[in-house]
Amino acid sequence: MPLIAKVATTASKTAAALSRAAGRGDGSVIGGWIGLKIDPDLLAHLSSGRAVALVSGTNGKTTTTRLTAAAVGVLGRVATNSFGANMPTGHTSALAKEGHTPFAVLEVDEHYLAQVIEATRPKIVALLNLSRDQLDRAKEVSMMAQLWKTALASQQHIKVVANADDPMVVWAASASPQVTWFSAGQRWLDDSFVCPESGHPIERANGDWWCTGCPLRRPRANWSVEDEGVIDPRGDWHLVKLQLPGKVNIGNAATALAVAAEFGVRPIEALPRLARVTSIAGRYAQVDRDGRNIRLLLAKNPASWLEAFDMAEQAPTLLSINARDPDGFDTSWLYDVDFAPLRNRPVLITGDRAYDLAVRLQVNQVPFRHVLSFDEALRAVPPGRLEVIANYTAFQDIRAELDRVN
Amino acid sequence: MSTESLRIVWIYPDLLSTYGDRGNLSILAHRAAARGIPVETYEVRSDQQMPTSADIYLIGGGEDGPQALAAQRLLTDGGLHRAVNQGAAVLAICAGYQLFGHSFFAKGAKCAGLGLLDISSDRGVTRAVGELRGDIDPRLGLPPLTGFENHGGRTHLGAQAAPLARVTAGVGNDGQTEGAWAGKILGTYSHGPALARNPAIADLLLRWSTGADRLAPLDDTWADRLRQERLEAASAV
């Protein structure tokens, strides 16, 4: 490693440690920011000599990265950005902090995938899904798929692990000669009714899909979810026991197993490690306070709200919505989510944009009560489980109330 | 109303439903039902024939490719033109608003629109993203418009279309005017579930299509709070 990179690495670690000690945050962004100021190629320098896997997509990337890092851990130490800081500053911090490791598993914001591929020269890239997410700022879904496709077309040596159920992902991955397909299901279909290749409608039936105007169609999956388990490429079924809730996390586990297998990890070795993962940067965390068992679920966009409803128990539920910079300023996605599954439970609402949510719930015929703080919400429900579903900054606000639970 | 119940069509949700456009259908149905007006809603996909006898037609926003495809299919189908000529009411949002005009730009090419509104659209230098507010044409008798816009288009109005509103915050058509209306057609750049913040526009569409002079008031406490908050937020920008 060049001298400048060594200096930058030390500065990065010091800044991150200071930030944590000062209680200002996880230190997962500031450290990388300082390091990259000193050595702009620091991420490339820190990546060299490591076998790197990148995980990207609209949803599930933090959880899948955590599960993949756990699985690859069978082989040796793994550096990973487990706080969800998924831009180059976060990657730089994570690699600097861990020192030399044979492996790195990095979650990558979908906008930065091309840039991070250039810097880290990954062995494997996992593509999870693409759906609408903060359209006031983010690129439209088909433009994002095009960016991925272009990035992978120029990197023919990378092994791609991609979701066969998402037409946008399949099209993006089709530029690559080496693809392992997994089937983790696609709950959200509204962003892939039109073929990104031909512009013709995409038809779906019984889990299969195909374009009506060109050869693009669902590839056969090498890995798939069945019941509470995963079928591997040899056709063997493995029971997946997780502490994380919901069917969606079985799909994330299947993806993690597929990526780890590319490094040579067998499912039977990885599964006990997946079972030990309890929560990820506060997601799925459970906190007991005043006799209430609070569980935190993060839902950032329509697809992930549907998944959160699937995970949440039939218990009083607090919904919190903000529309600050990291959330996107636009709340119209509220109408892409059907809140009807919440009709038969006490619903509380809060957050900067509680009024948007109030109007939405009224139209959706979901009774609710508006509370002005997390404490008021706690007092408003009986002892027992309180499910909390919040979007990004609202989630961080509540996590701060609970002493930054991980 | 042409039949016993109010019939609302959502045009091509498979193509034009980028951000919460379903909300307008839900809100109209909800507000009609709350007045005891029987409602039937239809989601007409782009591979289906467009019904010609519904009372209200909704068309939403979308990306360039689906927008161009939707315009082509509606021109070929012809059903929407017949419905409008028979006096149906229309709410057209963003990409759907543009394609109601004579022409619009998608993927760098000029595309033929439906020609049902006397407007034409091209590309602006910058994308208009953020809170949008305007004073609605006094002839419509409505409170100020509040919405969120996210579009790259600029729209020019001909003599047969009037601006829906004069812009007081945001961009709309060109920084001066926002949206357009003619007869019973309303078009706006307030994207997605525009009626959530503008229940009075929902009620205008219901009055047009039922022929009722006035509708029973509803409890709009939450919508009023939301409007107040967003109108103030737009002023603060």
Protein described:
- The complex is a heterodimer of chains A (406) and B (237).
- Chain A is α/β, with parallel strands linked by helices and 406 residues long.
- Chain A has two domains: 3-274, UDP-N-acetylmuramoyl-L-alanine:D-glutamate ligase; 286-401, Protein-Tyrosine Phosphatase, Chain A (Alpha-Beta Complex), CATH 3.90.190.20.
- Helix content of chain A is 36%, strand content 18%.
- Chain A is built from 14 helices and 17 strands.
- A nine-stranded mixed sheet of chain A has the order 2-3-1-4-5-6-9-10-11, sandwiched between helices.
- In chain A, helix 4 packs across helix 9 and helix 4 (61-72) crosses helix 10 (267-274).
- The model of chain A has no long low-confidence stretch (mean pLDDT 90).
- With 237 residues, chain B is an alpha/beta fold.
- Chain B has one domain: Rossmann fold (3-Layer(aba) Sandwich), CATH 3.40.50.880.
- Chain B is built from seven helices and eleven strands.
- Chain B has a nine-stranded mixed sheet with strand order 2-1-3-4-11-10-9-7-8. In chain B, strands 5-6 form a two-stranded antiparallel ribbon.
- The longest helix of chain B is centred in the C-terminal third of the chain and has 16 residues, at 221-236.
- Chain B is globular.
- Chain B starts with 5 loop residues before the first strand and ends with a helix.
- The interface between A and B is medium-sized, with 28 and 33 residues.
- Chain A: GO terms for molecular function: acid-amino acid ligase activity; ATP binding; carbon-nitrogen ligase activity on lipid II; metal ion binding.
- Chain A: Belongs to the MurCDEF family. MurT subfamily.
- Chain A: Keywords: ATP-binding, Cell shape, Cell wall biogenesis/degradation, Ligase, Metal-binding, Nucleotide-binding, Peptidoglycan synthesis.
